Amino acid sequence: MAKVHTVAVLGASYGGFRAAQLLATNLPKGWRVVLVERNSHLNHVYNFARYAVLPGHEHKAFIPYDYAFGHSINTDTPHIRIHGTVTSLHSNHITYVPHSFSSSLSSDPTPEPQTLHFDYLIYALGSLLPSPIDLWEHNRERGQHLDKARCHDKATGTGTKTHGIAWLRERQARIEAAQSVLIVGGGALGIEFASDIAAVHPHKKRVTLLHSRLQLLPRFEPALGDEALTALQDLGVDVVLGERLDLTSLHPHQCDGTDEDGTGKPFHVRTLSGREIDAEIVLLCTGQTPNTALMRDMDSRAVGKGGLIRVTREMRVLVEDENSEVGSEEEQGGPGDRTSSSQAKRRTIYPHIFAVGDAADAFGALQAGHTAYHQAEVAARNVVKLVKREARHCGFLSRSERDDEGSEGEEELEVYTPGLPMIKVSLGLTRSAYEIAGVVGTKDDGVPDLNAAAMWGACGLKGVDEEGMWR
User: Fold this and answer.
1) Is 369 helix (H, G, I), strand (E, B) or coil?
2) N or C of the chain: less Cβ packing under 10 Å?
């Protein structure tokens, strides 16, 4: 029986999903894609803030993986999707624990860890989200970021659509019950939470947005931050700029919206300057943590400052081969360099392992879904080139595959070059602002569910109706 070769893809969000599609469509016979993802459905996290505030649409954030391999998973295919959590990564295999679709009861026996060997791997595990949209509820110290060293061991979610819907509904109820809400962080997530809460509950609660800088959305053009500020003020949000939250002033229940002692007394927090702010609920929208603990455990040299995985321009994991000659950093392209034409070749001891998306230190690229998507395309195409190059040299390609390939096997691997920052931010239920290629603009054509059907269509489920989104 002929050996089946494996390309493993860890994570099936925006980057991993796209990588699996391209690999499944283009790998030659004798190869399979194994996609490992802890969630049963693709989590469309860009809609989480809206659905955590506005009832009736929460089920639309969880999209079936029917077309993860470019065609319906019901067709005959060698490719496999595993619903499970990866527990360890090694140079040629992973271990994972499968999840049960039938039950999430804590009394259920823990499944035995499984081992998967691979020839190539794409690491697309992204980042661990800020607590207001972290369905897995990774353990945190109060007001602190995740434990970067062991975060993959500390989750309490189940990864099912049922759990996700219940989680979002619980958040809706907490926000509905609160008379005052403080959002900390003036990035896209904080702005969207603040504007949605103010739009859905006008004149019913006090909404405050606290940002440590003097400009909202500081990575983008100032005009974009100005548009966001104007929209927030129009909605009645109290925007406080240039001040930081004093984390010691947080009450234990402000971050989960409970009133355990039953007093019903209003809570307050302080900024470092001493300003007091009413806040029954505090939403800490202050960034995300790269989900790179598995890579660090495999080889700490692969993870650099900020917890991001070091990569080459081909999106390979970069741990330099000490026996190879490597050019200067200027030749290689520094962290903020957007060019690649004169980049020196960087030899890595892991030429078969790639990393994309929020987990990768990709030369100053914006951490976003569309960025992960394009990095995944580069990585997947490079894996296919490497596979076909090796197969051709060994005489394993069929005639039709050789004809389809043309001269592709002789081509250099593709390199990744970041594009200009691009973003769209909702500012209430209909209003939004965007920046594309340095151009800032606004729209007023939004819909309550943020056009969820478009994302379902992008995942292969075109023309799905409201009832179909409950799947």
Assistant:
1) helix
2) N
Q: Is the pLDDT of residue 433 over 70?
A: yes
- Over residues 442-464, the pLDDT tens digits come to 999 999 999 999 999 999 999 99
Q: Are 291 and 128 in contact (CB under 8 A)?
A: yes
Nearest to 192 by CA among 464, 471, 426: 426
**165 CB neighbour count, 10 Å cutoff:** 17
Helix and strand counts by DSSP (H, E) for the chain: 10, 22
Q: How many CB atoms lie within 10 A of CB 218?
A: 14
Radius of gyration of the chain, Cα coordinates, nearest whole angstrom: 23
User: What does the pLDDT read at residue 341?
Assistant: 38
Q: What's the rounded Cα separation, in Å, for the pair 317 and 383?
A: 13
Both tokens of 239, joined, read 């925007």
The count of C-alpha atoms lying within 13 angstroms of the C-alpha of 380, restricted to the half-sphere facing its C-beta, is 28
Which residue is it, tokens 């991001």? 308
* Phi/psi of residue 20, nearest 5 degrees: -60, -40
State the sign of the Cα–Cα–Cα–Cα dihedral 287, 293, 294, 295.
positive
| Tokens describing residue 216 | 């909202």
Which pLDDT band, with edges at 50, 70 and 90, does 194 fall under?
A: very high
229 CB contacts (<8 Å, ≥6 apart)? 216, 239
| Distance, CA of 284 to CA of 200 (rounded, Å) | 20
Strands 120-123 vs 114-117: parallel, antiparallel or unpaired: unpaired
Return the number of other C-beta atoms located less than 10 Å from residue 110's C-beta. Answer: 8
